[in-house]
Structures are given as C-alpha cells and as structure tokens.
Amino acid sequence: MIQEQTEKIKEIIEDDIWGSIKEFLNLGFHYGEGEKSIHITIGLLLLLTAAFFITSFFLRWIRQFFTRKMENDDKLKFVSIFKFIKYVVYIVVILFTMSAAGIDITILITASAALFVGLGLALQELFQDIIGGIFIILDKSLRVGDIVEVDNRVGKVFEIKLRTTRAITRDDKVIIIPNHKFISDIVYNYTQNHKTTRENVTIGVAYGSDVQLVTKILEGVVQNQRGVLKNPKPFVLFEDFGDSALLFSLNFFISDSFTDPRIKSEIRYKIDAEFRDNNVVIPFPQRDLHIFQQKPFQYSNVKNGDKE
Predict the structure, then answer these.
(1) pLDDT at residue number 87
(2) What phi-psi label fits residue 102: left (phi over 0), alpha (psi between -120 and 50 degrees) or beta?
(3) Cα–Cα–Cα angle for 28, 30, 32, nearest 5°?
(4) Rounded to an integer, what distance in angstroms lies between the CA atom of residue 201 and that of residue 235?
(5) How many CB atoms within 10 Å of residue 90?
(6) Average of per-residue pLDDT across 190-208
(7) If you count Cβ atoms within 10 Å of the first and of the last residue's Cβ in the chain, which end, N or C, has fewer?
C-alpha cells in the first residue's frame, strides 16, 4: 500500500510537475529537423541569463580578491580590465548558447579568431603597456612622487594609469611615459629606496695648484649650502690627473633630487668666487704643437711669368 502511494507520488512529480516544467522550458522558436534544426527556447534563454549573472558575480569576486589590499585609486584602475574580460566571457557564453541551440558557429569562430589575431598584432604595444601598468601597481615598483629618469629626462611622477605614467619635468613640462618602458628599458628611480641621494660637482684645477687648499675650499663651499644635508657628511675626492687639469669631485647628499640642478648651480658660483679669491686657476684645455722639418723652408716671391 505504501509502495503504491510512493509510486503514484513519483508519477505525479515526474509526469505532471516536472513534465509541465519541461514543457514550459521547451517553449520557443523551433526551425528545421534533425542535425540542422534550430531551437531557441525559454530554457535556453534562462540558462544564458543565469550564465551572465554567474559570470558577473565570479569576476567581481576575483577582482575584489586581488585588489583587497590595494588603495582605492589603484582598485579603480582594474575596473576597466575586468569589464573587458567580462565582455569576452559574455561573447564566449553567447557562442556556446548559439551552438546549443543548433546554430553552426564554425564560421563565427574562424572569423573571430582571425579578427583577434589581427587585433593582437595591431594592439601589441597597447597590451604591453597594460601589462606593465598591472606589474607597477601590484609590485609597487613605482609610486606617485617618485623621481625617475627615462631616456635622459628626469621627472617627478604624479599619476600612474594602466597604460601610461605621467611625470612633470624640472622645466614644468609633462611627459607621458608608456608603461612598457618600465619593464623593457633601464629606468633610474632616484627615490625607490629613500629620498636621500648623493650628488657631485666635478672641477678641474691647474697643475701645480695646492691640492690641500683646493680640498679645504671645496669643503667650505658646501658646508653652509642650503639644501645640502649635514649628515651624511659631504666629502671631496681627488679623481684623477687629467690631460689639462687635476680633477676633483665634491660629493654631497640632498633630500630633494628634483631641485638638484639649482643646488649644483649655486655651488659652482661659490667655487668660482672662492677660487678667484685664493688664486686657484681653473685651466682650459691646452695643446702643444710641435713641427718637424726635414728640409729648410724656402719661400720665393717670383711669379711664374717672370721665370727665365
């Protein structure tokens, strides 16, 4: 008796309830028969909608997972990337849905593959810039406020985007640096470790000058210079014996590499004034010319027409 009731309930569920649901899901557009038939049903459209919602939720969760430790500005930079990924996934889901409906998508896949190859070649450098921007944001190899040197140009970074980085130069010009430069070229970051950098001013004095006096003058010049740090202490190096001068370098430390040229200029003015007061000569390049003759030099003022 119980078994009969169970079978009846099972039949009701399978035939009446589930059968009605399947009938409802199969409602839609049906064209053709056999392998070439096309079926666009309510169930297929519901599956497509569910796939869109699941994809959006999954990608949002991945983005939050990878950007959870980032600052708000950096998080916003990844929104456009995940939107692009989401649209690509949507296209894939639509293609699979079309295939499930019986539509031949071979031509579409072939055309899209050729299109993506062409776009990949055309936008190769763009993708490199975006990948470089992702690396910069993730590994913090570059930050806003860093002073960098790219292609012999020094700039202070004020904005980092996924494709480009913007910096302002010492003459108040903005340079836009493609991010692939930071992963393919040699880039000097003056403030990667700390803001303090060592700078130097080179100077040459005439042979025969008092090197101890020169050292004392150079140390005194930088002692009270504005912008130069007291610690670490500045120092002087006797660099080399040059072709026309004794070469010295005055080394000092500063905390703002961006104003470096102004500090160096002021130091050079002071060095020139101190050398003049102490009769220390800054020589210019000199060359000795030696002429060797095998025969005595002869000069004749007779014209060719007067010769006999």
Answers:
(1) 75
(2) left
(3) 175
(4) 11
(5) 15
(6) 89
(7) C
Residue 147 CB neighbour total at 10 angstroms: 21
Cβ burial of 245 (10 Å; 0-12, 13-18, 19+) is buried
The alpha-helical segments, DSSP class H, found in 18-123 are 18-25, 42-66, 72-77, 79-100, 106-122
Mean pLDDT rounded to a whole number for the chain: 78
Q: Per residue, what are the HEC states of 206-267?
A: CCCCCHHHHHHHHHHHHHCCCCECCCCCCEEEEEEECCCCEEEEEEEEECCHHHHHHHHHHH
Half-sphere exposure of 177 (CA within 13 A, CB side): 31
Task: Tell me the residue type at 184.
Answer: S
Residues 74/137, Cβ–Cβ less than 8 Å: yes
> Which residues does residue 250 pair with via DSSP β-bridges, in sequence order?
201, 236
CA distances (Å), origin 66, targets 5, 8, 145: 55, 53, 24
Does the pLDDT value for residue 30 go beyond 50? yes
pLDDT at 56 over 90: no
User: Which among 156, 146, 189, 159 has a CA at the least distance from the CA of 74?
Assistant: 159
CA 93 and chain centroid, separation:
34
Phi, then psi, of 165 in degrees rounded to 5 = -120, 135
Asked if 44 and 24 count as a contact pair (C-beta separation under 8 A), the reply is no
| pLDDT tens digits along 59-118 | 778 777 777 776 666 666 666 667 777 777 777 777 777 676 666 666 666 766 766 677
| β-sheet bridge partners, residue 237 | 249
Nearest to 202, CA basis, from 240, 156, 162: 240
Structure tokens at 14: 């399978």
Q: Is the pLDDT of residue 12 over 70?
A: no
Q: What is the DSSP letter of 26?
A: T
A 10 A CB-CB count for 155 gives 21
Both tokens of 195, joined, read: 């803001």
Task: Report which DSSP code applies to 135.
Answer: H
